[in-house]
């Protein structure tokens, strides 16, 4: 698995919906997140770019883990203002997450989402092999970018980038 080094100069932001994952069913958590995001997106029409998701807790730990599907955004202040005024269903799960500028190793996964865990493990091993360390904070969490639409892309052609903050 090969990676590319990306140095971001500016902080980024994402509009996400915090979901609890039960029994490793990330697909259900993603769907629930989309259902919470949809009314807000329809009402306020924020400038969304790429679909993405954070996993702020380790899915291998016992018990439930958290998963935050959402979208990269270009107008965080407008979205924050919109969230403050929004009273729709799912509001308590929605928030804007900051993504600190810095160095990231980006790995490409092609194939079904249910095989992403193997790519995550390979990516983490590659970081160690390269003599780097993960640099995770609440503003620098690893995340996935979904580069095509699963509703009209064959499963074996889905492309996901895994972004890992490093130091």
From TrEMBL:
Range of residues in the leader sequence: none
Record-linked Pfam families: GyrI-like
Domain of life: Eukaryota
Organism expressing this protein natively: Boothiomyces macroporosus
Organism taxonomic ancestry: Eukaryota, Fungi, Fungi incertae sedis, Chytridiomycota, Chytridiomycota incertae sedis
Positions of the AraC effector-binding domain: 1-167
Name listed for the protein in its UniProt record: AraC effector-binding domain-containing protein
